[in-house]
Amino acid sequence: MHVKLIVTDIDNTVFDWVTYYVRSFQVLLKEVESITGIPYVQLASESREVFTRHGSIEYPFLIQELPSVDAYYADDFDRMLMEAVDRGRKVFLKNAESMLVPYRGVRETLEEIRRRFPEVPIVALTDAPRYVAMWKLNKLGLLPYFSSVYGLADPRIPTCERNGRVKVDPEILLKHLQQSNFGFKGRIRILPDEYEKPGTRGLKTVLMDHSLDEDPADRGSVIWVGDNLRKDVGLGQRLGVRTAWAKYGVLSDPELYRLLHEFSPLANVHKNASFADGALDAPQPNHNLEEFSDLLKFLR
Ligand SMILES: [Mg+2]
Q: Which of 94, 115, 116, 285 is surrounded by the most beta carbons within 10 Å?
C-alpha cells in the first residue's frame, strides 16, 4: 500500500504490557502486604475498586487510595507516604525497569520507517492516560520515533476526604502537575474518556487531524496496528483504514491471566489483554503481523 499515515496502539503491540504490568503490580502489592500485614487478596480486590473509580488500571496513586491502607495509617499521612506508598512505588519501578522493553524488532522497524518514509507521521493512539502512555514510551526508548501521541486524560490527584490534603509526595506531585512531556517534540492530544476504544472517535480524531478523513482513498492509505481483534481491528474496519493485527500480542500465559483477574476491573480484563479469538465473527485484519517488523512488507 502507498502509506500516508501510520497509527499504532501501544500496549501489547509495541511491548508486552501484560507481563510488565501484572508482574510489577504483583510485587507492589506484596510489598504493601509485607509492610502493613493487610492480605494480598484484600489489597487486590480494593485495587479493582480504585481502578474502576478512576477509570484506569494504570492509576498511579493507587496505594494511598486503598481503604485498608488508609485505615492502617489513620491520619499519619507522612508515614503512609514514606512507607507503603514510597516503597511500593519503588519496587514497582525496579521491576518495571527490566520489563519495559519493546518487542523484538520494534525499534529497528520504526527507525526504518523514519528513514524510508520521512514524511509519513507515526502516531501512537492509546486508551491509557496520556501521561502514563508517554512515560512508558519514554522508558521503552520509543518516544522520539512518534510524531504525536493520543491518550486519555491525565490521572486525578488524590486528596483526603477528611481534610482535603493532597495525598502525594510533593516532589512526585510536582512532576505530574508540570505534566512532564519527557522532552517530546511532537503533538500531544488528550481525548475525552468517551473516545475510548472500541469507539471510533479516537482514531477518527487522528484521521481528521491529518486531513485523511474525507476521501475513502485517503483512509485506505492509513495503516492502523493493534493487538486486539475486536477492539483495534474492528474499529479500523469501521473507519475504512487498513488494519494490521499484532497477533504476537495475544496473551497465552494462563498464570498472568489469573493474576490480572485478581485486581483488574472485570470489564477491563479483555480490554487490557487480548486472547486467541477463534470466533468466526471476529473481525479479520488486512494484514497479520507475526512480528512488528512485518509491517515493512506492506508499506511503499
Ligand atoms: Mg493493545
A: 285
Tell how far the Cα of 141 is from the centroid of ligand 1, in angstroms: 18
- Grid coordinates in use for 277? 479469538
Distance separating the N- and C-terminal Cα atoms of the chain: 6
Q: What sign for the dihedral angle of Cα 27, 30, 36, 38? A: positive
In the reported structure, the alpha carbon of residue 153 is separated from the centroid of ligand 1 by a whole-number distance in angstroms of 18
Per domain, the residue ranges of the chain are 5-298
Side by side, which strands form the sheet with 222-226?
187-191, 148-152, 122-129, 5-8, 222-226, 242-246, 287-289
pLDDT of residue 280: 67
Distance CA 270, CA 76 (A): 38
- For the domain made up of 5-298, give the CATH fold: Rossmann fold (3.40.50)
pTM of the model: 0.94
Ranges under pLDDT 50 in the chain = none
- pLDDT reported for residue 209: 98
Please report the pLDDT score of residue 168 as a whole number.
94
User: ∠ at Cα 241 (100, 218), nearest 5°?
Assistant: 120
Please report the pLDDT score of residue 163 as a whole number.
86
Distance from residue 231's CA to the centre of ligand 1 (Å):
9
pLDDT value of position 276: 66
